[in-house]
Amino acid sequence: MLESALALSLMTRTGVALPARDRVLAYLREHLDSPHEFDRVLATLAVGRATDRAFVGDADIVDKLTDALLGAAPAFISARRRRMLYAVLSLLGCPVPPDAAPAADEEAPTDPAHSWAAVQQAAVTLVLATATGVSNGATAAALRTLAAVRPATTVWEGYVLLHLLSLHGLAGVPGQEETVRSGLETLLRYQRDDGGFPFVVDLQHWCTSTAGIALAAAGSPPGVLRAMAEVLAAHEVDEAQRSLCLSLSRGAPLADGWSFGPHVAQNDVDCTSCILEFLQTVDPVAYRGAVRRGLDALLAVQGTDGGFPTYVAGASSEACMTAAAVNALAPHPSTAPARERALAFLAGSQLPDGGFEPGWSRSRLHAMFRARLAACTAAPDDHRAARMAERIERSVRETQNADGGWGLQPGDPSDDISTAYGLITLCYGSESAPIGRATSWLLAHQNADGGYGGPPDMVGPRPFPYHIPILTDAPVLLALGHVRHRVQGTASLLREVA
C-alpha cells in the first residue's frame, strides 16, 4: 500500500497520464475501506490528491497513526523513521511539522548506517527540503548519494520503496526532470497484475532459508532440502554492485554473508544467520566453505556489547539479531566465547515483562522464541541465560489467550504466526497443557490448501508490514516440527525408562 500510494503520487506530481496510473488508482480505490487504518489513510490521501479531492477525515488521525507506527519501531531508529514518515505524508499532501523540518545548518549524517539507510536518508532529506524550502549542506550530499544509485535506469538493490523515495526526492530538484521521467518508466516494470507495487522485487534467500529450516524440522525429504541449500550456497553478487554498497555504507557491512535476494548486495545478520542454520542442518561438511565464510562475517560485526546489529559493525545491537546469530553459531565450539557474550547481551536486554524491544516483526513473540532457542545453547552453568529463559516461558504462558493462541501483542486476537512463535517457545518448557492448546488452535485454523493466513508480522522498512504467504506458512510448519521433536523426545525417554 505504501509503495502504491507513493507511485500514484509520483505519477500525479509529474503529470503522467498512462494506463499504469489508472491501474494503481483503481488498486488504491479498492482499499479505501481497508480494515487497516494506516493503509486506509494512505489510500485516501493518494486517491484524493490524484483526483483533486482533499482528505476530510479526522485532523488528528495522521498524528495518531504516526505515534502508533513509531511506537512499533526500535528506539534507536525512531528519529530517522519519524523523518521518513513525515516525508511520505508530505508527498501525500500533509504539512511537515515544525520539529521535522530540516535545519538551515544541517549537515550530512555520519552515524553508522548501512547503504539502504544512507540512500533512504538522502531521499528523505531532499523531500523535506523541498517541502520546507530549506537548502543546506545535507541536501548537496544527498543529491550525490542518489546520483550514485542511478535511479533513471535501475531499481537499485531491487528495493522499490527506496526507488520511489529517491525519485520523489529528485523531483523537487531543478534539472532532474529527465532522471525522474526515466526512473518512473523503470519502476513500471515491477507493477503487479493487481495494479499495485511491491516494496522489493524479491525475497528469495529469506523465503528459502526460513522455509528450509521449517521443512527440515518437519522431516522433509533430504533431496528437497539439498536442492534448496545448493541455491543458497552458490550465491554470488556482482562485484560492482558490492563495491557501491560498500561506498555508501557508513560502517563495515557483512563481507561474506547473505542478503535477502540473489541480486542484492547488502548482506544482513538475519538472512546470514538463517541460511547458516539451514546449511548446517542439511550438510555441514558439503557446505563447510560457505559456512566458514558466513561465520567469519557474523563474528566480524559483533558489537563490543556482545550483541549483533542487523547490517553494519558499530550500529546498535539488537536482541532479535543477536538471538539469530547465537543459533547460527551454536554448532561451532570455537564460537563459545562470542556466544557467551551474546547471551549476556540478550539477558541484559530483556524487558521487565520478559520480552524484548521490537525487531523486524510486529509480533512480540518473534524475538522471544528466538531468544528462548538461543538460551538452549548456553553452558550448563550460565544461570543468567537460564533465568532469561524462565522469564520468557512465564511471559508466554501468561499471555496465552483463552482459545489457546496468541496475538501480535498481549490481548490481541490470536493469529497464526504469533501462535506458532508461542508454541515453539513452550516446546522447551516443562508444561504440556499450553502446548496442547496451542497445537489444537493451529490445527483448527489450517486452510483447505494446507497453508495458513492471518495478519503478516514481518516489517520492512520498520515498522511497515509486508505480506508474503510463505512467511506465514513457514513459522507454523516450524512450530509443528518443534512439537514433533518434543513428542519424539518424550517417547524416546519413556522407552529408555521402560
Topology:
Layout: H1 2-14, H2 19-29, H3 37-50, H4 61-71, H5 78-91, H6 115-132, H7 137-148, H8 160-171, H9 177-187, H10 204-217, H11 222-233, H12 239-248, H13 269-282, H14 288-300, H15 319-329, H16 336-349, H17 364-375, H18 383-398, H19 416-426, H20 433-444, H21 470-497
Helix pairs in contact: 1-2, 1-3, 1-8, 4-5, 5-6, 6-7, 6-8, 6-12, 8-9, 10-11, 10-13, 10-21, 11-13, 13-14, 13-15, 15-16, 15-17, 16-18, 17-18, 17-19, 19-20, 19-21
What can you see in these coordinates?
With 498 residues, this protein is mostly helical. The chain is 57% helix and 0% strand. The protein has 21 helices and no strands.
Computed structural class? mainly alpha
State which percent range the strand residues make up.
under 5%
Q: Low-confidence stretches at least 5 residues in length (pLDDT < 50)?
A: none
Q: Give the helices and strands as they follow along the chain.
A: HHHHHHHHHHHHHHHHHHHHH
Largest sheet, in brief, is: none
How much is the average pLDDT?
A: 93
Number of strands: 0
How helix-rich are the residues, as a percent range? 55-70%
What is the count of helical runs?
Answer: 21
Distance between the termini: 59 Å
Q: Assign an overall shape.
A: globular
Question: TL;DR?
Answer:
This protein has 498 residues and is mostly helical. 57% of the residues lie in helices and 0% in strands.
